[in-house]
Design goal:
single chain; alpha+beta; Alpha-Beta Plaits; two-stranded antiparallel sheet; 2 helices; 12% strand; globular
Length: 49
Amino acid sequence: MYVDQDLCISCGLCIDICPSVFDWNDDGKAEAIVDEVPADAEDDAKEAM
């Protein structure tokens, strides 16, 4: 999973929807915190993006 930093508007919606996959980075943008999305989080991760 990858968050395009040029497209991220720092709204936090992806983090709210799927906190097991997304978190804030040091620049105040969202980033994926896992290399592979766990099977039980796939639907939420897709919705978040």
